[in-house]
Amino acid sequence: MRRLAWILGMLSAMVFAGAMSAHAQDKKKQAATDISQADEDYALQGEYLGQARIAENGSSRSSLVGLQVVALGDGKFDAVMYTGGLPGAGWNRRDKQQLSGTRDGDRLRLQAGPLTIEVHGRWADFSYADQSASSHIEKILRISPTVGRRPPHNATVLFNGTSTELFKNGRMTDDGLLMEGADTRDAYRDFTLHIEFRLPYMPHARGQGRSNSGVYLQSRYEVQILDSFGLEGLHNECGGLYRQRPPALNMCYPPLRWQTYDLKLTSAKFDDSGKKIKNARLTVRHNGELIHDDVELKNKTGAGRPEGPEALPTKLQNHGDPVRFRNIWLVQHDGGPSHLDCPPIRFSHAPAAGYFAGHRRYSGGSRYIIDYRQFAHPRYSGGRR
């Protein structure tokens, strides 16, 4: 009887462990594609910017600082504090500090050594254990300067929210967004491409499982799409040329925000025998910031198709995560035909002065959030803009 009881106990433990593992895997796959589906942690995640008192060597000084708060699921968070501002908006690209913490109700306490940051959703308060400095910075939502950019007269409008006819395997959501897993119907050789994408919120996922997709230029060269908000900015993270080159700067916004890629590809050149005589070159701007400046591509990236003289379609990778796309247009630079009549863009985008965010966490349902371009900062010529 004892042996039978032991066996039954072991089987119960294995079933329980299996159920817990399956539950953990399910949480990793959960993806919110709209702010109304997000958990309570989402209200605290995001970017904060302002003047703060920073303690150093027994004294304190005032400095513009940026803070990126990253939700990890179940009330757990990581964060990065940047000296000088946020990446692409003042950070000196050198000094930063890692923090971590947990949510308690509607507040988050982050800690690193003597520094404590309390995040309240609309602002963050800084304090030090010796009370040498304290300060308060505001939450902001950045808007890419190229979001909603309209196609020029000589552009081929690949997707404007009304039809997927210029994509093979194109699928459109009920609200007029293009889903992942679409290939351009036609092949393009040398071109400039504008594309806007929105990452799902997947707080329990990690690494390549967190909102993964990619723009495969000519099916050969991948510019990675991933929720890399608050990470280092590696070759396999957002903006990276997969397995070849990291972005010059990690410009990834938090998930559920519209982001932009503006890419210029010059194809590799081949002689009549099919021998490559010149490498491809690529320029990429992520959310308006130059992250690859006319870089040389010596070969395909990752699992891309082999290089060759023929042009191939461009792909929006399907990696199983619900990444959404809109406002996709292309200008050819090799004399190919273009659609000269640009149909109207159906979707609307945030006004230049800010953004409305609706979430049950916010009283009244919606809250107006300032845009970082309203801040006076030396990065922008003329101060405020």
Q: How would you explain this protein's 3D organization?
A:
The protein contains one helix and 24 strands. With 385 residues, the protein is mostly beta strands. It has two domains: 31-143 and 350-385, Lipocalin; 156-332, Jelly Rolls (Sandwich). The strands form five sheets. It has an eight-stranded antiparallel β-barrel. Strands 9, 11, 13, 16, 19, 20 and 22 form a seven-stranded antiparallel sheet that branches. A five-stranded antiparallel sheet has the order 10-12-21-14-15, with no helix packed on it. β6 (115-119) and β7 (123-128) form a beta hairpin. It is globular, with a radius of gyration of 23 Å. The N and C termini lie far apart (79 Å).
Q: What secondary-structure arrangement, pairings included, does this model have?
A:
Elements: H1 2-29, E1 46-56, E2 59-73, E3 76-83, E4 96-104, E5 107-112, E6 115-119, E7 123-128, E8 134-140, E9 156-159, E10 167-168, E11 178-179, E12 182-184, E13 191-198, E14 213-217, E15 221-225, E16 258-266, E17 269-270, E18 276-278, E19 280-286, E20 289-297, E21 315-316, E22 324-332, E23 354-358, E24 366-370
Antiparallel strand pairs: 1-2, 1-8, 2-3, 3-4, 4-5, 5-6, 6-7, 7-8, 9-22, 10-12, 11-22, 12-21, 13-16, 13-22, 14-15, 14-21, 16-19, 17-18, 19-20, 23-24
